[in-house]
Write a structure and sequence with these properties.
The structure holds two protein chains of two kinds. By secondary structure, chain A is mainly beta. Chain A has one helix spanning about 1-20, and strands spanning about 25-40, 45-60, 60-75, 80-90, 95-110, 115-125, 130-145, 150-160, 165-175, 180-190, 195-205, 215-225, 230-240, 250-260, 290-295, 300-305, 310-315, 325, 325-330, 335-340, 345-350, 365, 370-379. Chain B has ten helices and no strands. Chain B has helices at about 5-20, 30-45, 50-65, 70-90, 95-105, 110-120, 125-135, 140-155, 160-175, 180-190. In chain B, α7 (about 125-135) runs antiparallel to α8. The longest helix of chain B is centred in the middle third of the chain and has 22 residues, at about 70-90. The termini of chain B are far apart. Classes of the chains: A mainly beta, B mainly alpha. The interface between A and B is large, with 34 and 44 residues.
């Protein structure tokens, strides 16, 4: 199918372009090269090599990602997969945030099997500082060579963010034409120093696809940062079929080297699994979080969780509003130790030289200059 | 006094005053903005108001690339709030207290709460006022925030007040309404006091 080829080529070209000239403030890119052994349900096991470019762009209210995967099997046969996903977020309310998204993808195996799908979705996120929940609906169409079939789904989930661990539980009820199924899934992301672990466990139940469509599945991916921009990615497990994108259920083991233009250790899936990577459901709002901790004397430790940033700066009434660069610490956070007198203080932060904003963790207030400022108290 | 001395002394005083007003940090402002900003800060200083909060607000405007009009409007508003805070807190208030008091007034706390805080707490009011401002900015109704801080200010130390504010933040994140969260936080902070503390002032029976 030409769509898959063109989209994959576009993702590769974009990634290579970024590799050549560096990143803008809100863009990240990666290119992953790996080997895998894969056992699609109902087929013989096969070795494969993979090449997977990915480009992400993100602002405070929108994100776009383009990804592709090229697979060459032992037989010499090739597979192309590609996807584009866009998300728009409403301005955050006191406790909630709306999301509208669209995902489109295509895949091709030989000249025999080709899929495409396009799905729009809407979600309502209920947000806390460290936890949240969402409910959502989606609808669209998918095609396996012939006439498109309708897609409708409803989903709900909850998540918690701990200092090093993010947990997510979700359930989806999907209907593709006359086939229905329900997935219950859990995801965990743990990160410490150069190591990041992603674990997914789930089950498909009440499937209208018969016993072949039901079962338990699970995957684990370990990402080990090797340097500033490179990471070793090891993965394995068994994932369920995805009737929307045309993914077959399979078991796999994979090893890959990822070249990242974001930060080292960024999770890059070495093998195309049926679902998108971790924490895909988390809205953009609470990602950047500031902790203010009074130490001895007047010293205050300012710790910012902004794992995707390459450079983090703050400015406040305790820096004469001069930008101060934070230092990355081994656990991936950014820190500065500053002498701050007791009282009420005003602060803004910025990532990668972008616009000043208020991170989660401090009180948001309107400033006098048409923007917002964070305020916090030091004892 | 000789005529020369009568001329030189006021001149030196004027020069010293002008030099003091020419804070080098303000050179980050555009030249056409700097002069009125320096004038306004000098006037505030002459009126006995602290200059540092005004300098910081001007620098914030410069960092955010605000226009001169916006910066001057912000400074006039802040100078007014500092004056209101001094009126409520008294002439002995420290610059940090005045700055925190001005922020509390701007957030919506009534001047009477500042005066009441001055009467009920011997220690510095900087942190109680900062917590009060922070609570109101978080969405806690001003009267509920004032009641909670007034109830605690006489008995707890600054770190406990800040911890109280964190407890409110957690409760709000967990889904409590800001007013109810402030009330629950005040109760929790009050109950954590040393034995005998409960014999003091009772929290007023306000509905969150």
């Amino acid at each position: 199918m030409r769509v898959a080829s063109l989209a994959w080529a576009a993702a590769l070209a974009a990634a290579m372009s970024l590799l050549g000239r560096g990143l803008g403030a809100q863009s990240t890119g990666s290119l992953t090269v790996g080997v895998a052994t894969v056992h699609y349900d109902g087929f013989l096991p096969s070795g494969a090599v993979s090449l997977a470019p990915r480009v992400d762009w993100q602002s405070s209210s929108a994100s776009v990602s383009v990804s592709g995967t090229y697979l060459r099997f032992e037989s010499g046969h090739e597979s192309l997969q590609s996807a584009v996903a866009a998300r728009l977020f409403t301005d955050p309310g006191p406790l909630w945030r709306g999301e509208f998204g669209f995902v489109s993808g295509a895949s091709q195996y030989l000249d025999l099997a080709s899929f495409w799908h396009g799905v729009a979705r809407a979600r309502l996120h209920v947000l806390g500082l460290e936890r949240g929940a969402w409910i959502g609906v989606s609808g669209g169409a998918t095609s396996y060579g012939g006439a498109p079939r309708s897609v409708a789904a409803a989903s709900a989930g909850v998540w918690w963010r701990l200092p090093e661990l993010t947990l997510q539980l979700s359930t989806d009820r999907s209907r593709i034409a006359d086939t229905t199924y329900t997935d219950v899934g859990s995801r965990a992301h743990w990160e410490r120093g150069p190591l990041a672990l992603d674990v997914a466990l789930g089950a498909r139940a009440w499937s209208g696809m018969g016993s072949n469509g039901s079962g338990v599945y699970g995957e684990t991916t370990a990402t080990i940062a090797l340097g500033e921009r490179t990471a070793l990615v090891l993965g394995g497990g068994h994932y369920a079929s995805d009737p929307i994108s045309g993914g077959l259920a399979a078991g796999y083991l994979s090893a890959a080297v990822g070249l990242s233009l974001g930060r080292s250790g960024r999770v890059i899936h070495a093998f195309p699994t049926s679902r998108s990577p971790r924490a895909e459901a988390l809205p953009l709002g609470p990602v950047v979080r500031l902790e203010v901790r009074a130490e001895r004397g007047r010293w205050v430790r300012l710790r910012l969780h902004a794992s995707e940033a390459m450079r983090v700066e703050l400015a406040g009434d305790f820096t004469d509003w001069e930008p101060v660069a934070l230092t990355r610490v081994p656990d991936g956070a950014w820190e500065a130790m500053l002498e701050i007198p007791s009282g009420l203080h005003r602060i803004n932060v910025r990532l990668d030289g972008g616009a000043w904003f208020v991170p989660a963790g401090v009180t948001r207030s309107v400033d006098d200059f048409g923007s917002e400022v964070g305020i916090f108290a030091v004892p | 006094m000789r005529p020369v001395v009568r001329l030189v002394v006021p001149l030196l005083v004027t020069l010293a005053s002008a030099t003091a007003a020419q804070d080098a940090r303000l050179e980050r402002l555009a030249p056409e903005t700097r002069a009125p900003v320096v004038g306004l800060i000098d006037s505030a200083r002459s009126a006995g108001l602290p200059a540092e909060p005004l300098v910081q607000r001007a620098l914030e405007g410069a960092t955010k690339h605000a226009g001169g009009d916006l910066i001057m409007t912000a400074l006039r508003r802040l100078a007014g709030d500092l004056g209101g805070a001094r009126e409520a807190l008294g002439g002995a208030a420290s610059p940090a207290e005045l700055s925190a008091g001005a922020a509390a007034l701007r957030a919506g706390a009534p001047p009477s709460v500042l005066a009441e805080l001055r009467r009920t707490r011997r220690q510095s009011l900087t942190v109680p006022l900062a917590v009060l401002t922070d609570l109101v900015a978080s969405g806690v109704p001003a009267d509920s925030a004032a009641a909670a801080v007034l109830a605690l200010a006489a008995r707890v130390r600054d770190p406990e007040l800040v911890e109280f504010r964190h407890a409110v933040e957690r409760d709000i994140a967990l889904g409590a309404s800001p007013g109810a969260a402030a009330w629950a936080g005040a109760l929790a902070a009050s109950s954590s006091l040393a034995p005998g503390a409960h014999g003091g002032q009772q929290l007023p029976p306000r509905k969150p």
